[in-house]
Amino acid sequence: MCGRFTTVATAALFAEAFPGVTFPPDFTARYNVAPTQPIPVLTNENPQEVQFFRWGLIPSWAKDPSIGARLINARAETLATKPAFRAAFRRRRCLILADGFYEWGTPPGERARRPFFVRLASGRPFAFAGLWEGWRPPEGEPIHSCAIVTTAANSMLAPIHDRMPVILPPPARPLWLDPGVEDPATLKPLLVPFAHEALQVTAVGKAVNNARHDAADCIQPSLLD
User: Fold this and answer.
1) So which residues are the catalytic ones?
2) Beta-carbon neighbour count of residue 139 at 10 Å?
3) For a disulfide at 121, which of 115, 181, 200, 219, Cβ 3.0-4.6 Å?
4) Domain region containing 22
5) What is the total count of domains within the chain?
6) How far, in whole angstroms, is CA 143 from its chain's centroid?
7) Neighbours of 16 (CB within 10 A)
8) CA angle 41-44-45, nearest 5°?
9) More confident residue, 76 or 109
10) What is the pLDDT of residues 16-42, one digit of tens each?
11) Which among 54, 53, 59 is positioned nearest to 36, based on CA atoms?
């Protein structure tokens, strides 16, 4: 799964990685982005402007928004059939902007679970495959929310965890965001593990365990105990 991620690169680096996209002036560094918080997305309806949606997808048929806390991830294998995600998979896809993510696991030979920070070896920002929804409460403004699509872990991450978020390389992004594409068979080939040789995995300290802690020490390397 993917339960935390980062957007620590400068707005200029994000703009370089996503040419033609308008970034808000308050796009600031985040070292510990957590579920239910606003996260940066590019939707298939507005792919040139960064918007902030709540992390944790609230289906349009939900009775209340609390379900979103349980729907932060969407398994690639069941997107086309699971009621919470199947409509969004066909019609409401997005890119979720990031430059790293955390995973908790027990490395071989160790006893305790610990956090690891995963990023591109290049250090560049990237995009998760995401789904989004708009939910209307009985009163008040609509809530826009999203989930990160996950797939089987690649060979680098498998010893830590059996799942990883889907990272879409730049050539795959236009198809994922194409509003004219609704066929799951066309989209599913995009939802594969990212190349292990392009990633860097680093053990980090326990600061990231606290979802309220958002500071640079979250990504500092830590020796295995």
Assistant:
1) 2, 103
2) 5
3) 200
4) 4-219
5) 1
6) 18
7) 12
8) 100
9) 76
10) 999 999 999 888 899 999 999 999 999
11) 54
Q: Are 42 and 52 contacting, i.e. CB atoms less than 8 angstroms apart?
A: no
Does the pLDDT of residue 89 top 60, yes or no? yes
Q: Which of 96, 109, 89 is nearest to 42 (CA)?
A: 96
Its sign, for the CA torsion 151, 30, 200, 189, is positive
Q: Is 164 within the bounds of a domain?
A: yes
The reply to whether 152 falls in a domain is yes
Q: What is the mean pLDDT of residues 195-218?
A: 96
108 within a domain of the structure (yes/no): yes
Per the domain annotation, does 225 fall within a domain? no
Report the alpha-carbon distance of residue 75 to residue 166 in Å, rounded.
Answer: 10
**pLDDT by residue (tens digit) across 131-179?**
999 999 888 899 999 999 999 999 999 999 999 999 999 999 999 999 9
pTM (predicted TM-score): 0.96
Nearest CA-CA partner of 48 in 94, 98, 8, 99? 94
pLDDT at 53 over 90: yes
The domain spanning residue 121 has which CATH number? 3.90.1680.10
Distance CA 68, CA 64 (A): 9
Residues 6+ apart with CB under 8 A from 80: 86, 89, 184, 188
